[in-house]
Amino acid sequence: MMPLDGRPILTAAAMRAAEEQIIATGTSVSALMERVGAAVAAQVRRLAGDQEVLILCGPGNNGGDGYVAARLLAAAGQRVRVAATGAPRSDAAIAARHAWGRDVEALGAAAPAPVLVDALFGTGLSRGLGTDVAGALARLAAAAALTIAVDLPSGAATDDGRLLSPVPDYDLTLALGALKPSHLLQPAAARSQRVIVLDIAVPVASEASVLARPRLSAPVVDAHKYSRGMVAVVAGAMPGASVLAATAAARGGAGYVLLLGGASDRVPHAIVRRRFDAAAIADKRIGALLVGPGLGRDERARERLEAALATDRPLVIDGDALRLLTPQKLAARKGPMILTPHAGEFDALFGADAGSKIDRARHAAAASGATIVFKGPDTVITAPDGGVVVALAASSWLSTAGTGDVLAGLVAARLAVNGSNAMPDPLAAAAEAVWLHGEAARRAGPAFIADDLARHLPEAIAACL
Ligand SMILES: NC(=O)C1=CN([C@@H]2O[C@H](COP(=O)(O)OP(=O)(O)OC[C@H]3O[C@@H](n4cnc5c(N)ncnc54)[C@H](OP(=O)(O)O)[C@@H]3O)[C@@H](O)[C@H]2O)[C@H](O)CC1
Ligand SMILES: [K+]
Fold first, then answer.
1. Per CATH, the architecture of 230-462 is what?
2. Class of the domain covering 12-209
3. Could you tell me which residue ranges the YjeF C-terminal domain spans (predicted)?
């Protein structure tokens, strides 16, 4: 099965536009539905074996896909029943139901089957399911051994990860033609254990894609510690956080890591410690200056942040520093910047507006001129020029203190390494860091502490060479 890495992510409107292009060139909606139904039926057949299949069909084209799949499964000898919310409404779905030609049960009265296929609603869902439909879906899903959603779990919005009504847990979602934001954004993404994209020969393109394993290279033969990428970490009131970040930067591939102004005695010897002063942070060899982990929000924190902003060095801004800034202030600064807010920091800096996490991160990048790593179980990375990368859910064990500091150090390392070879590409650097962070967590297993993550970074890097 094709991995999801690097795949484009399309909103409902973008998917509809791609579909319309194909239709304009002579493919009918029914022909497209036939293609979708065949691809769905092939997957269901592969997974269901000789178990009975119940397909739930809604009124639109998602339901139409269900009728086509039912017909093809029955023709292939599978035991299959269909239950529907009512009569289909679109022409293609009406034709598909007609071609099915067998009994259609009322959804509320349908008996369960071991394999449940949800073709109730897809990208056309406009509101939450009625309580009787949601109730029947929950009942039938709970009784099934295998639950499969066609395109999207019914009740999940397509574009922003919201659940418009209660959504059961699915074993598998068959994304038609392309991934949609809700296959990656929470809470919708967590409703499906697995997502497979079915190729339905509709060309798709998007500025947004799934975070892919980066391709990294070993240092060039004549590399030295400065040419490899130099990171400077500004310490503050809570020195442990900056030590975690500096350690992650060193393990994340930087050639030289400086810790400025910290007061901790548990610093790896490879990390160079200096006093914080304006000259130290203005060093032209610094490829990434990190400010924020453990910085605090006192007067000294403000001074250090102001000094960092006043340099022309590529800047990574995390944690407390994000609470001391405005988007306007960032926009006024020249030079590459990457911000790594979690949801609380993001809301405080950019406002708690409605909208999908992708759209909010995109607007934040445009407003601040910075690359944004909007962290969480569905990390979204956006660049001011519109590029978007969304990470698949990483280990939930990452929800522990200090992992954000590790990520910040890693972002700084990748920015410095990346900038040592060419013009820094903040989006690529942030994407490398998020991938390596997720991979290190996966390798660390359960119940790790943030300190453990850095030890797994070299293995994660080795997986990208
Ligand atoms: N993308 C492709 O290339 C292809 C996609 N296909 C499939 O088509 C669906 C999208 O089909 P569409 O007909 O636009 O939408 P849905 O089937 O999801 O549902 C729309 C109908 O449902 C009504 N509706 C919406 N929400 C509710 C609700 N909560 N309760 C009851 N009814 C609801 C809606 O009517 P309203 O006017 O009342 O909103 C529509 O009647 C896509 O997901 C794929 O599965 C094609 O097969 C071709 C290729
Ligand atoms: K569905």
1. 3-Layer(aba) Sandwich (3.40)
2. alpha beta
3. 208-464
Amino acid code (one letter) for 307:
A
Pocket of ligand 1 (CB under 6 A): 15, 19, 32-33, 36, 58-65, 89-90, 121-130, 150-151, 176-177, 200, 202
Please state the domain extents for the chain: 12-209, 230-462
What is the CA(58)–ligand 1 centre distance, in A? Answer: 8
CA distance 149 to 170: 7
For residue 297, pLDDT over 90 is answered with yes
Global pTM value: 0.95
Fold: same for 12-209 and 230-462: no
Closest atom of ligand 1 to 123 CA is 43
Sequential DSSP letters for 426-453: HHHHHHHHHHHHHHHHHHH-TT--HHHH
Distance CA 445, CA 118 (A): 33
Ligand 1 pocket check: which of 22, 137, 159, 176 to mutate, most ligand atoms within 8 Å of Cβ?
176
Q: What is the DSSP letter of 160?
A: S
Binding site per annotation, positions: 61-65, 118, 122-128, 151, 154, 241, 294, 342, 375-379, 404-405
Cα–Cα distance list, 223 to 218, 424, 460 (Å): 10, 18, 21
421 pLDDT band, cuts 50/70/90, is confident
List, for residues 11-58, the tens digit of each pLDDT value: 999 999 999 999 999 999 999 999 999 999 999 999 999 999 999 999
For position 420, what pLDDT does the model report? 78
Question: Which tokens belong to 288?
Answer: 């990434």
Residues composing the chain = 465
Question: Any idea which ligand is nearest the CA of 116?
Answer: 2
Tell me: the pLDDT tens digits for 70-122? 999 999 999 999 999 999 999 999 999 999 999 999 999 999 999 999 999 99
